[in-house]
């Protein structure tokens, strides 16, 4: 257990510290920040690291165990209706507990937090059920993407423009530390039970499909909620002026977020308890492990949300606002590219995905190529997001051609890479995107007098979209390299060996050319 905690601590630190380093570098060079803002940020950094550590350990012990147990029970039943209904409920439950979603809801005005959470969770549950049905009936993944995104943009035409960016951001934050492992485990279980020869390929693409549901659900929600009903929801904590006020701020924060976390996790515990009594019948040892994991999850999520809301968000907003007010606010563009680079290298899930792709392609697509494709895509996404905020260009002009290009590339990309590319978008939009980059975008937007709903939001969606294009291009490159490797050699380069020579060449790993051949023709050593 201790070694596992240390490993999770290392991963959490790798995610948080690069952005923290950039913030401190700005503070000591071109953008000095108020003393108490820096103090809040440093405390928030520690809270993020330790909170995420406890949360991920707790999620492994509890949420993943609950998901795997219920998923195994579903797959054993081989009952189609039970699989569909059960996967929908599980998708809703795990999404409600997703920390990245909790961070996003704190920043969206007009819509109550629980309404937005419930809407996003419903979308994930619906599309998780559809994704599992796709595996069972072997419906082509590329066609599923085309139909789903066509529906998204048709609905977007009739939805409020204010909710287009929020919708795509909602899709990006749902693929986080709880939902991704759970969804992948459930999909792998369904694929294994089905026994398809495409089981490995079917394990990809689930997360990408599940991220479409929230986009569609939020766009429909936008037809009923007026975003002008209230102002920006997040309140900065920059007014702290003493250690006593700081202590009071964090005590109140702990109490408020503890209440919210209990409300979020209680439905999961209740559903699991009922299933344990009626169907699961887990052993006492495993049940005790899950209970301990739930305590870790509660503590970690409370600490994490406190650090994000009181430490990270105010600094992100402050930096974006201050730099946007400068005459040389063009500096925001290279800064966005730099942050995109570090966000890519700091996200542990990206390294896991890169390793997985390298193994699948037998090294034809290396981790370095994967990292280049992702870092280029994410850096470009952040640069375009900043340009969009400064210029006030509608997100329509980015999302529509971006997804059109991504869907067009599916006709030329190997099926495996189509699934990997669409999954990589969700992997790329990790915790730091919602916790720091979104408040950073809000600060820029408020400084230039833009509309927060239409201009600032969308940065998470952009980060989730660009890797779809860059990774599919890598897939096309891989396909070309594979075809070249399989192409027959020209006749003049073929050597025909006798069995002894062939054996020798295979053992040495070399092609031996016998220059003393008795009979040769004019084709440079080709035996008659």
Protein described:
The relative contact order is 0.13. Helix 2 (35-77) packs antiparallel against helix 3 (80-96), helix 6 (141-158) packs parallel to helix 11 and helix 16 runs antiparallel to helix 21 (459-486). The protein has 528 residues and is mainly alpha-helical. The protein is built from 22 helices and no strands.
List the helices and strands and how they pair.
Layout: H1 2-28, H2 35-77, H3 80-96, H4 99-105, H5 113-137, H6 141-158, H7 162-173, H8 179-194, H9 199-202, H10 206-210, H11 212-221, H12 243-280, H13 284-325, H14 332-346, H15 348-360, H16 367-391, H17 396-409, H18 415-428, H19 431-448, H20 452-456, H21 459-486, H22 499-508
Helix pairs in contact: 1-2, 1-14, 2-3, 2-8, 2-12, 2-13, 3-5, 3-8, 4-19, 5-8, 5-11, 6-11, 7-11, 7-21, 12-13, 13-19, 14-16, 15-16, 15-18, 16-19, 16-21, 17-21, 18-21
Question: Number of DSSP strands?
Answer: 0
Largest sheet: none
Indicate the mean pLDDT. 80
**Helical coverage, percent range:** over 70%
Q: SSE order, as H and E? A: HHHHHHHHHHHHHHHHHHHHHH
Share of residues in strands:
under 5%
Question: By helix and strand content, what is the structural category?
Answer: mainly alpha
Structure annotation, total helices? 22
- The stretches of 5 or more residues where confidence is low (pLDDT under 50) are 230-234, 493-528
Radius of gyration (CA) equals 26 Å
Looking at the structure, what is the overall shape? globular
Question: Any key phrases for this structure?
Answer:
single chain; mainly alpha
Quick structural overview:
77% of the residues lie in helices and 0% in strands.
